[in-house]
Specification:
This protein is of the alpha/beta class. The protein is built from 8 helices and 9 strands. 41% of the residues lie in helices and 16% in strands. The radius of gyration is 17 Å and the shape is globular.
Length: 247
């Protein structure tokens, strides 16, 4: 039994899913994986179920949904499943190798050994560590994080990062049914909520590599949700009563 589970949302990731699973399972530390598949028509879920049946029945799990229901709702479904199954460290990671599986132990160590509650794989804590992204995307992401800091006063450098480790108590404390955003703003909202509750957050420098295979799911609507959602978060920071930390 592992104390750690990596949640990987998927939609049409047949080129990457088996490779990323094997890369995570090849690490020295034992991680489990939960795939949340949103009805991929390319057979992503069938690949995962084949690996479960033939090789990894006790380490690999899948939850299937009927369609594209949003990144945020996928992670929240995964968080609830992980809490029900008593995992102590719960990770978010993309399927496309933009997040390096070799960084998982570093995020784990920040929480398990250094005592942080949230560890963020940060592209911007030590410069701009992004490979093969178009310059427009780099600038949009970098200035989106700067915008969040200016509006909210929240001093995390990479506010939109999707590579993270949460200690169990963070996800037990955050009222997951009150998380309202589904796209990029979901990542900001989870970090901001953890910060407002009083959890200790560490940014761990990582190198983000743009996907080599498959198709990006990014859209302009995701960025606009983030930009306008930040004002709502600032208002919440003034008016909302946040829960007390649960152990």
């Amino acid at each position: 039994m592992s104390d750690s589970i990596v949640i990987i949302p998927t939609y049409n990731e047949k080129e990457n899913i088996e490779k990323i699973i094997r890369a995570v399972f090849g690490l020295e530390k034992c991680f489990h994986i939960l795939v949340i598949d949103d009805g991929s028509p390319d057979g992503t879920a069938q690949i995962v179920k084949g690996l479960i049946a033939n090789e990894f029945p006790n380490r690999l799990f899948i939850l299937e949904r009927s369609g594209k229901l949003g990144l945020g709702t996928a992670y929240i479904k995964g968080f609830r499943w992980a809490l029900e199954h008593n995992y102590q460290y719960i990770f978010e990671m993309d399927a496309d190798f933009s997040h390096d599986p070799n960084d998982l132990p570093r995020l784990y160590s920040a929480c398990a050994d250094e005592g942080y509650d949230v560890a963020i794989g940060s592209r911007y804590i030590s410069g701009v560590n992004v490979v093969n992204w178009p310059m427009g995307r780099v600038l949009m992401s970098y200035f989106a994080s700067m915008y969040v800091r200016m509006v909210t006063g929240f001093q995390v450098r990479d506010t939109t990062a999707g590579f993270k480790c949460y200690r169990r108590r963070v996800l037990k404390t955050i009222e997951l049914d009150k998380i309202r955003f589904k796209g990029y703003a979901f990542q900001i909202e989870m970090k901001f909520t953890a910060y407002k509750i009083g959890f200790k957050i560490k940014e761990v420098p990582v190198i983000f590599v743009n996907r080599r295979e498959g198709t990006s799911k990014m859209s302009g609507g995701i960025f606009s949700e983030a930009l306008f959602g930040v004002m709502r978060l600032r208002w919440d920071g003034w008016t909302r009563k946040y829960p007390k930390i649960q152990e």
